[in-house]
Amino acid sequence: MAQIMKRLIIECGAAETRAALLQEDEVWKFWFGSARGDEATDGFARAGRRFAGRVKAVDKGLAAAFIDLGDGADAFLPLKKSNEQYCIDGAMIEVEVKAPPRQNKGASLRFIGALQPEAKPGRLPPFADPVVEAVQTIGSEADEVLVDDGLARRALEEAGLDKVIHESHPVALFEKYGADAALDAAFDRTAPLQKGGRLIIDEAQALTAIDVDTGGLNASSPARLREKIALAAADEAMRQISLRNIGGHIVIDFPDIPGEAGRKRFQAHLKTAMAGLPGAGAASFSRSGLYSFTAPHRALSLLDRYTEQKNGEPLPGRRFTTEALTKFALARLERRLHAAPSARLRLALAHDINAYLTARPHWKSRLTERYGARFEIVEDDESTGSGFDLSEQ
Fold first, then answer.
1. CA pair distance 87, 75, nearest whole angstrom
2. Among the four given CATH numbers 2.40.50.140, 1.20.120.420, 3.40.640.10, 1.10.443.10, the one describing domain 50-123
3. 58 alpha-carbon distance from chain centroid
4. Strand partners, 27
5. Is 63 left (phi over 0), alpha (psi -120 to 50) or beta?
6. pLDDT score of 302 more than 80
7. Residue 373: CB atoms within 10 Å
8. Rounded Cα gap, residues 108 and 355, in angstroms
9. What stretch of H or E contains 33?
10. Is the bond leading into 126 cis (omega within 30 degrees of zero)?
11. Do the Cβ atoms of 358 and 364 come closer than 8 Å?
């Protein structure tokens, strides 16, 4: 079997570092972290990070302690004989994140040890460079790493990572390699299949349900058509799960395939497709034909990271957060500044987005350091839709 070419692209933005892993030029995975320089202020409970936490409450019935990590949400620590003597109300303890928060559920923790009472809740060092963390998280097996910043390339090389290329192309890496389009599509509830039909993906708190819609397609051999759609759905479902960073319990309703030979071909193909999801397991078919399995929950899904539960876009019941829209707006501005060195640009922001940016003036300062004073950012309550508007002056 030919080896699959894997490429990791990393953009070092003024407000966010983002990376995408491509397999044979198709986007398979995203990673998002703080901007370089903001590492110490990135207090998100990502899997593997360590925190100082204050014990808020102990529930003997649940055999759990609820821990304040400094982010306003209660994290969950199972009580064991090895840690229950340290888990008393108000105590400070060191913990490691096993799984990040998901929707209304707090992060899941592992006990490390006791801390001094005067310690404060929050993330503990060391604070890795975001570009190094991106490679270590999703790009450790990449054949090459492309980064748009020379200093970031040096940081990667100093960390012992090779095959790093500084690509200073005028077209941003996410745009050049199709990651921008893939990211936009990943917020859609549906995903088209190459053989016809589509996937319908619904993330809920308890599980993620994926339905394979054949789209009412007709063919001279309906059985063979259903098999082809099922095979394509298996491949695309695994890519979408990886792309959207979906973890936990997943249930897929594949088309029923008549005939023993067809079912064997499909199950063999499904097993191969599942190999593209490292750590997935507990796979089985129910009596009703539903395929169920679990995938590791090591990071937030795209929906959890960038949207909140309110009516609006990108789908009913959820809308993009102010933080997400601010970062999207700055990324759009930075992409245009990079591509057009002589352009003078005006970014108009809705009130809430402008207020969010105003509270983080260092993001704008970074843009000025990189591109000079050939842009302006103004508040404009008439900005609608995405909440921002970029124009050339």
1. 13
2. 2.40.50.140
3. 31
4. 22
5. left
6. yes
7. 8
8. 32
9. strand 26-34
10. yes
11. no
Q: What percent of the chain clears pLDDT 70, i.e. is strictly above it?
A: 95
The residue assigned the tokens 């990673």 is 31
* Encoded tokens for 73: 């949400």
Looking at the domain that runs over 6-41+128-182, which CATH code has it been given?
Answer: 3.30.420.40
CATH code of 187-302, in short, is 3.40.630
Q: Against a cut of 0.85, is the pTM above it?
A: yes
What distance in Å separates the CA atoms of residue 68 and residue 93, rounded to the nearest whole number? 10
Average of per-residue pLDDT across 153-160: 95
Which residues in 164-173 are b (16+ Cβ under 10 Å) and which e? beebeeeebb
Give Cα separations from 289 to 150, 203, 234, 292 (angstroms): 52, 20, 14, 9
Rounded to whole angstroms, how far apart are CA atoms 252 and 82?
A: 39
The residue extents of the domains of the chain are: 6-41+128-182, 50-123, 187-302, 321-392
Rounded distance between C-alpha atoms, residue 93 and residue 85, angstroms: 11
Paired strand residues for 80: none
- Say how far apart CA 231 and CA 213 lie, in whole Å: 13
Q: What fold is seen in the domain 321-392?
A: Hypothetical Protein Ychn; Chain: A, (3.40.1260)
Residue 244 tokens, joined: 């959207």
3-state helix, strand, coil in the chain (%, to 5): 30, 30, 40
Q: Which of 52, 64, 57, 68 is nearest to 115 (CA)?
A: 52
CA separation for the pair 177, 194 (Å, rounded):
20
Determine contact, residues 75/107, Cβ cutoff 8 Å: yes
Instruction: Give yes or no for a contact between 233 and 254, defined as CB atoms under 8 angstroms apart.
Output: yes
Residue with tokens 């960073």: 245
pLDDT at 106: 85
